């Protein structure tokens, strides 16, 4: 019963976090199937012809950043870029890799309350998609 209650609390807390912040990311290593912790991730907004950094964080032990959008900023529609610093992460794990970073450009159009960007990585490839 204790584990069930703890799981329910943990799930509720995760749901609450997602409901509060409109952007999350998740990084998984395809080579071993494990989460990629300590990946540096940069969030930028496109303003005219340039990109402006609005936040930066590192993935947690589960490979997640549950609140990447700045807490003190209203969600603005527009074009954004999340850049995963994968080359640094692979170097820290004594692995060579082909892609020094993975930029993911996407649109926040207000159609949903929460945007989630999963990234699946390996030393010589990656995949991403719009999650939920």
UniProtKB/TrEMBL annotation:
The gene is uraH. GO terms for biological process: purine nucleobase metabolic process. Residues 19-132 form the Transthyretin/hydroxyisourate hydrolase domain. Residues 1-19 form the signal peptide. It catalyses: 5-hydroxyisourate + H2O = 5-hydroxy-2-oxo-4-ureido-2,5-dihydro-1H-imidazole-5-carboxylate + H(+). Belongs to the transthyretin family. 5-hydroxyisourate hydrolase subfamily. Substrate binds at residues 26, 64, 129. The keyword Signal applies. Its EC number is 3.5.2.17. Catalyzes the hydrolysis of 5-hydroxyisourate (HIU) to 2-oxo-4-hydroxy-4-carboxy-5-ureidoimidazoline (OHCU). Pfam families: Transthyretin (PF00576). Keywords: Hydrolase, Purine metabolism, Signal. This is 5-hydroxyisourate hydrolase.
């Amino acid at each position: 019963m204790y584990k069930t209650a703890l799981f329910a609390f943990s799930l509720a807390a995760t749901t609450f976090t997602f409901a509060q912040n409109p952007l999350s990311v998740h990084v998984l290593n395809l080579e071993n199937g494990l989460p990629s912790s300590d990946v540096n991730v940069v969030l930028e907004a496109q303003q005219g012809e340039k990109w402006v950094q609005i936040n930066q964080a590192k993935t947690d032990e589960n490979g997640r950043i549950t609140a990447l959008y700045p807490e003190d900023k209203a969600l603005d529609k527009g074009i954004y870029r999340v850049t995963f610093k994968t080359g640094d992460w692979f170097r820290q794990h004594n692995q060579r890799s082909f892609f020094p970073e993975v930029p993911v450009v996407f649109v926040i159009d207000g159609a949903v309350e929460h945007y989630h960007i999963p990234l699946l990585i390996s030393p010589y490839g990656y995949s991403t998609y719009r999650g939920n």
